[in-house]
């Protein structure tokens, strides 16, 4: 799991993303506008723009370079647009699904919860955050974790947060079924994935 020791708000500002993208909605972190930061004062090279978009994706999903490059290699081998394939692979991670089904406040927390064995896929406990879910898979909170005060708090704090349409979420049962593949326009952040592909294609 990627470990970022730099303050979340500072990292978000440098990448031009809102902490809300990661699930952080504290007033002190969202009251400022997160734009392009100090980079607006100087011209950024094409390489710099490409690198920033890659860093943004890696940071949002919490993956390190080696694993991220493996996703790229898989994306170029699959049919379709490589950039969209890459995004699909990242969205299909189990930790991201847990976050998107609102069973974790942040993606970082989702990675920890999955790693601690709190979730099952099709009835079997899975503790690998990078596990790739498929259409038809049912992700559920493990029976032994349903009465945990931790998850009661999460349910309360994520109340009103919507899940993407590619997930059929049952909040009462603490489950989510993957009904179809994620679509590009269902991301919860802005990204120019073509720049990432161009960077790796050089």
Summarize this structure briefly.
The chain is α+β, with helices and mostly antiparallel strands and 202 residues long. Helices cover 42% and strands 8% of the residues. A hairpin with a 2-residue loop joins strand 1 and strand 2 (124-125).
Layout of strands and helices, then pairs:
Layout: H1 8-15, H2 27-30, H3 46-61, H4 65-77, H5 82-91, H6 94-100, H7 107-115, E1 119-121, E2 124-125, E3 138-141, H8 149-157, E4 167-170, E5 175-178, H9 193-201
Description:
This protein is α+β, with helices and mostly antiparallel strands. The chain is 42% helix and 8% strand. It is built from nine helices and five strands, in the order αααααααβββαββα. The protein has a five-stranded antiparallel β-sheet with strand order 2-1-3-5-4, with helices on one face. α3 (46-61) crosses α9 (193-201) and α4 (65-77) crosses α5. It is globular, with a radius of gyration of 17 Å. The chain starts with 7 loop residues before the first helix and ends with a helix. The model is unreliable at 26-40 (pLDDT under 50).
Helix content: 40-55%
Global morphology: globular
Number of strands: 5
- Low-pLDDT stretches are 26-40
Annotation keywords:
single chain, 202 residues, alpha+beta, five-stranded antiparallel β-sheet, 9 helices, 5 strands
């Amino acid at each position: 799991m990627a470990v970022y020791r730099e303050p979340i708000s500072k990292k978000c500002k440098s990448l031009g993303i809102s902490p809300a993208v990661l699930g952080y909605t504290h007033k002190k972190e969202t009251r400022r506008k997160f734009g392009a930061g100090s980079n607006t004062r100087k011209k950024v090279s094409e390489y710099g723009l490409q690198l920033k978009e890659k860093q943004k994706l890696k940071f949002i999903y919490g993956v390190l370079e080696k694993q991220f490059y493996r996703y790229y290699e898989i994306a170029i081998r699959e049919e379709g647009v490589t950039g969209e394939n890459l995004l699909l692979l990242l969205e299909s991670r189990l930790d991201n699904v847990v976050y998107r089904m609102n069973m974790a406040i942040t993606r970082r927390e989702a990675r920890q919860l999955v790693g601690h064995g709190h979730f099952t896929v099709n009835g079997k406990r899975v503790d690998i955050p990078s596990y790739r879910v498929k259409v038809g898979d049912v992700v559920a909170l493990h029976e032994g974790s349903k009465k945990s005060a931790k998850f009661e708090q999460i349910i309360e704090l994520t109340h009103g947060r919507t899940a993407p349409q590619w997930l059929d979420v049952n909040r009462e049962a603490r489950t989510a079924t993957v009904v179809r593949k994620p679509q590009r326009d269902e991301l919860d952040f802005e990204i120019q994935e073509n720049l990432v592909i161009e960077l790796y294609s050089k």
